Amino acid sequence: MKLQGEVKTELFTSPDNQLIAQVKRVLRSSGYAPLAKVRVMAVQGEVCLEGEVPTYFMKQLAQTHVLPIKGVRRLNNELNVDRQFHHLK
To answer: Which PROSITE patterns does UniProt cross-reference here (predicted)?
Structure first.
C-alpha cells in the first residue's frame, strides 16, 4: 500500500523531472541571465527549450550547454530571438 506522500515523491523524482532540474541548473550556471529564464520541458529524454533570448548566439549557446547532459536524447530548441529584449529584465 502506498501512502499519498509516496506517490507525490515518485512524481517529483521521475527521470524527466530530474532531467528538467538538471537542464535548468546548467542553464542557470551558464553565467547568462536570459538562459536562467528559459522554460524547460522533457518527455522520455526529449527536451524542449522555450522562451526568448536576445541573440542567435544565446539561442545556440543554450543548445550547446544542454546537448551534452546525460539523458538528453533529443533537443527541440524553440527559443525565440527578440531583438527588443532588454538584458535587465
So the answer is: BON
